[in-house]
Design a protein that fits this description.
The structure is a single chain. The chain is an alpha/beta fold. Helix content is about 50%, strand content about 10%. The strands form three sheets. Strands 2, 3, 4, 5, 6, 7, 8, 9 and 10 form a nine-stranded mixed beta sheet that branches. It has a five-stranded antiparallel beta sheet with strand order 12-13-14-15-16, with helices on one face. Strands 1-11 form a two-stranded antiparallel sheet. β12 and β13 form a beta hairpin. α19 packs antiparallel against α20, α20 packs antiparallel against α21 and α23 packs parallel to α25. InterPro entries: Alkaline_phosphatase_core_sf, OpgB/LTA_synthase_biosynth, Sulfatase_N, TPR-like_helical_dom_sf.
């Protein structure tokens, strides 16, 4: 009787696993159908359906083994308890599988350990950008769990129910044999999404524990350190050299892959950039060192290693140098222009480390710059490319030359929303219907119309910027560098290398000859080459020793690779490496052809060599970033000193802020400040600001507490910094006016009021505080004008009326 009961329980469990398998398969059919109906090409649908079913069974086999002990544990007293537990668990698995499938449909990538590289806030921001909040998007999250329950119900009624265990065992044996002798069905695009996610996370964690920082002897304490004179001036022969130092304008175009420029497969939607190519130095086989935006800034400007999850994610920034810090010491005005929140990906921490003269992000735009917001989700990444370039042009007049300007765009990114979108979509329709000869099929263009429209818009925005820049007197002495941060993701990638392949264009009136290069270089090679060029030709003083990861751009016109190029596909995934004309990716070697296409090869000796090179780099990468051994701490490297906490302060902070997010820490700091614990409040503020220097409310709170303690000089520094970071934020003006009132520095209030008027800040409290300052300065006429203007809008406000009476 007991054996019969166990068999009955096992059959029930196997039945639920079969229902889970069929539900997973239906989710895959949904994925394939959605892909087909969107117009995207799906090759060999029958093979895809079969292989996905096999992979789902392979995954369900692991799930079967994992949950079996839990099932019997719960079913011990009563059978139904085990069944209820497994149903709940499997419903959760169905929801997770569908969520991962939705991610894959949006990005054309399986989600893996890259999730670990982002904070919950960043994940929420990214998902909000890509997904509509429509009820129709949430319905499948209900439908598929219900389908699982319905399928399990009907399977139990099936006449084959009693044979389910035997069938499951036979298929399991067949799958294991297939796994041993035919591994192709386990390719990433066939895999169960949950299996891929878990296996990728496990692989990432195992790799993280295996790679240890190497031990370096004192003679080689800084392994990347080299003599700056060793770097060849590869760019000099192409330029006409003038006496005046050139302006450098770097444009990093979001999502711009090489496949969209020149005569590659997806070309035809960057007419302006294509028109620049014959007038420029152009590298078509250039590589970004990361598969997402997080790595472009440090790689391009500082040629740094990656750390564990990208250089910007290292909590205590290692000592290093960059083109910003070196050119700033050579009297260059350094500026960064973007249209998004510079706190995202911690760009602001890197920029402030190098003490840039100007950091322009979304907080620096006024109402004259339209900010496009998605009508369905209400989401916005910030300002579109055209507005970023307009803002840049409006800002340049007041800047001293020579200048180093870095501009980052963002329109070629999910959700591909931008002003005049319908106009550009119509232009794509015109391209489709024009009979133009394009390599990409019209069907694929139609399926990705918004993406191609965003590329066309970005290209036209760059044209607007350079056309307007040509009218400026410094144009003749300016060097433009245009590249992508990585290849955009939501259009299918031809191979593993495609995601990193970006164009690299140097355009300038100073060029005396142009060239199209097929040689391979990467973003890591730019900073060494730029500074070697400026040092050799313009008397720009470069430190005697530098610590670049790259060795300089190769200008050979024929196809070759003389570099060893590490690539981080996503935050934390340092498993891609380009060595000679081979790419090693995820344990597989690919031969890189002259046209930059790849094909898989097997070569054990070569694999051993590449693995050795990659592992050596991983160890050095860990050593220099964990031990602050990129560059010695000296006058060449230290630009701005960071606030350093004592051991005692860190212990106190850990107790105070345990498990708190930054917003919760801010509320705690407010509470402490209002309870006369201002030293502790400022300590918490400093802790937040070290991580998030652009958290303006925290900076204002810190400034106010300093003012309350009559430390007016430091209060002024903090509050002016807050105002500079957010010139359209009312609270910064209010805090400064209060501080000047308390410290009897009312004359300075004039400057703040003028700035408020210039920036069109309309706030009656600001006007009232300024009227109060005028009264103190015995300028009763101006005080009366201001208070009257407020009373016109708030005639019954007691405080304002009382102040009006005091002027008589």
């Amino acid at each position: 009787m007991k054996i019969k009961s166990i068999r009955q329980k096992n059959r029930s469990y196997v039945l639920l696993c079969c229902a889970l398998l069929l539900t997973f398969w239906l989710i895959s059919l949904f994925e394939i159908s959605s892909t087909v109906f969107s117009g995207k090409e799906v090759r060999n649908i029958f093979q895809l359906i079969v292989f996905k079913l096999l992979n789902h069974f392979y995954t369900v086999l692991f799930i079967f083994l994992f949950f079996l002990p839990f099932y019997h544990l719960f079913a011990r007293k009563q059978h139904r308890y085990g069944t209820i537990f497994i149903r709940i668990a499997f419903v959760i698995l169905v929801i997770i599988e569908f969520a991962l499938t939705k991610y894959s449909l949006t990005t054309l990538l399986n989600l893996g350990a890259d999730l670990l590289g982002y904070s919950l806030d960043d994940i929420y921001l990214t998902v909000t950008a890509s997904e509509s909040t429509s009820i129709f998007n949430f319905l499948p999250f209900i439908i598929f769990p219900v389908l699982f329950l319905v399928i399990s119900f009907f399977l139990k009624k099936s006449p084959y129910y009693k044979h389910s265990g035997k069938v499951f065992a036979i298929i399991t044996f067949a799958i294991i044999v297939l796994r041993i002798f035919y591994s192709d069905f386990l390719q990433e695009n066939f895999q169960n999404k949950m299996y891929y996610f878990v296996s990728d996370v496990i692989h990432y964690k195992m790799e993280k524990s295996e790679i240890k920082a190497v031990q370096i002897n004192d003679e080689n304490e800084y392994p990347f350190l080299k003599k700056s004179a060793e770097i060849n001036d590869a760019l000099g022969p192409y330029f006409t050299i003038k006496e005046e130092k050139p302006n450098i304008v770097i444009i990093v175009v979001e999502g711009l892959g090489s496949e969209f420029v020149g005569d590659r497969y997806y070309s035809g939607f960057t007419p302006y950039l294509n028109s620049l190519l014959p007038k420029s130095l152009f590298w078509e086989n250039f590589l970004s060192n990361t598969g997402r935006t997080f790595g472009a800034l440090p790689s391009l400007t500082a040629s740094t290693p990656f750390g564990e999850k990208g250089f910007l994610e290292i909590e205590d920034t290692p000592t290093h140098i960059s083109i910003f810090s070196i050119l700033k010491r050579n009297d260059y005005t350094t500026s960064f222009f973007s249209g998004d929140n510079s706190s995202f990906d911690k760009k602001i921490n890197f920029l402030e480390y190098h003490d840039l003269d100007n950091i322009i992000d979304e907080k620096k735009y006024d109402d004259s710059y339209p900010k496009y917001t998605n009508g369905q989700t209400g989401f916005s990444w910030g300002y579109s490319d055209r507005e970023i370039f307009r803002k840049t042009l409006s800002f340049l007049d007041d800047l001293k030359r020579p200048r180093l300007d870095l501009i980052t765009t963002q329109t070629i990114h999910e959700p591909f929303d931008f002003p005049e979108k319908e106009t550009y979509i119509k232009k794509i329709d015109s391209v489709i219907n024009s009979g133009s000869i394009l390599k990409v099929s019209k069907k694929e263009i139609a399926a990705n119309k918004e993406i191609f429209a965003s590329i066309l818009y970005a290209d036209n925005s760059i044209k607007m910027f350079i056309d307007n820049y040509k009218k400026r007197p410094e144009f003749e002495n300016t060097i433009f560098v245009i590249t992508g941060d990585h290849r955009l993701i939501p259009i299918a990638q031809k191979d593993q290398l495609s995601r990193f392949n970006v164009p690299f264009i140097i355009y300038s009136p100073l060029l005396k000859q142009t060239s199209r290069m097929k040689s391979v270089s990467s973003h890591l090679d730019f900073a060494p080459s730029l500074l070697a060029f400026l040092s050799n030709n313009y008397n720009v003083i470069v430190p005697e020793e530098v610590a670049w990861l790259g060795s300089g751009i190769d200008t050979a016109e024929e196809f070759r690779n003389i570099h060893k190029i590490p690539l981080m596909r996503y935050k934390g995934s340092l498993n891609d490496f380009v060595y000679k004309d081979f790419m090693y990716s995820g344990g597989t070697i690919y031969k890189i052809k002259e046209d930059f296409n790849t094909y898989k090869i097997e070569d054990e000796a070569l694999e051993v060599q590449i693995k050795k090179e990659l592992n050596e780099f991983k160890s050095l990468n860990a050593y220099v970033t964990q031990n602050d051994k990129i560059y010695p701490k000296n006058n060449d490297a230290i630009i701005r000193e960071n606030y350093e906490f004592t051991a005692e302060e860190l212990i106190k902070l850990e107790k105070l802020t345990i498990n708190m997010k930054e917003n919760e820490m801010f509320m705690l700091a407010r509470e402490k400040a209002f309870n006369d614990e201002r030293e502790i409040a400022r300590l918490i503020c400093n802790y937040i600001l070290k991580k998030m220097p652009n958290y303006v409310d925290v900076r204002i709170l810190k400034g106010r507490t300093l003012a309350w303690d009559a430390n007016y000089d430091k209060a002024e520094i903090e509050l002016l910094s807050a105002l500079n970071r957010a010139p359209y934020y009312d609270d910064a003006y209010l805090a400064l006016l209060d501080m000047y009132w308390w410290s009897s520095q009312n004359e300075k209030s004039n400057e703040i009021m003028l700035k408020a008027i210039k920036n069109k800040i309309k706030n009656d409290e600001i006007a009232f505080k300024m009227a109060r300052a005028y009264k103190t300065m015995n300028n009763l006429e101006k005080a009366e004008v201001l208070i009257d203007s407020i009373l016109d809008k708030q005639p019954k406000n007691d405080a304002f009326l009382k102040f009006k009476e005091s002027l008589k």
